[in-house]
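1st attempt posting a full record on here, be nice pls
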Amino acid sequence: MKRIERVKAAIAHRDADKVPTCIHLAWDGLEAYADRLYERYTDENLRRLCDEGKISRHNAMYYGMGNHVLAVTCPWWVWHDVPEEYKEWDTPDFLPKTMGTGSYSEFAETVHNLKENTDAYVLVTIWGSHFEKAYFARGIENFLADMAGDPEYAQSLLDMIIRKNLVMLENIVHTPGIDGILLGSDWGSQKDLLMSPESWREMIAPGEQREYDLIHEAGLDVWVHSCGDIRKILPDLTEMGVDVLNPIQPECMDIYELKDKYGDKITFWGGISTQRTLPNGTPEEVALETEKITSYLSKDGGYIISPSQEIQADVPFENLCAMIDTAMKL
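the predicted structure (as tokens):
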């Protein structure tokens, strides 16, 4: 099977000849290990593609590591010239300015080259897309207070973000070669949601649903990233049509219970501990955990092998390689 076919099988909750993998590194992890991983895992053909400008060095590294999913960023938008007082305690009486970034032609060329030269699933990653975007402008403490104390303002900011997001999504969803889009917003802490489930359903879910519907109407898969314990809204996310959920942190939630309850409705991407085993265990312990989690969570499809967060520099190189090498065999 091709790599994209294995990912599609996992999303459709079907078994495949191999469990797909998608392992990413944080910026400090890339600074620490990208060169060593590139030398260890890329072959002559991948290096040639890099030299020819057909694939980025990082995506060549990830593909060589066995990743079935290759991520690309897209033209998006950012807050522009937000005044300092916007992060003061008092609720603002205006919405901030925005500015578009990126090149659609360069984005389309990147996607085309990945499709021409690999058999990977191409995922557009949009981190900080909604709730996070709001607190990037106001500060997280202020915006959570806004949601409780001035919900009219908070909703106006969230609605503005969704309007901007929908325009950008409409501009990219029909780019040939895209398979799925990831929207990222961290709704959880280590212990619970950052807001009540009722507030999430009233203020966050409607905008998310509009984005998910637009993505699905274009024939693409919806991937969602949210850190923390979000068990209280997992039934909502399955009903809203989320196809893949990341990162399912075992320090926050019982990932085996998640598989038992929701494994036939949503595909999980993550789960291998980046707070305990990967930074503090031995290579043997990392390999065993990778095997155990993959064996359970991949029953009848529905799992993509990955750590529960992007790899940081506190993970020993030997442990990182133990996870990669084990994943390649599963």
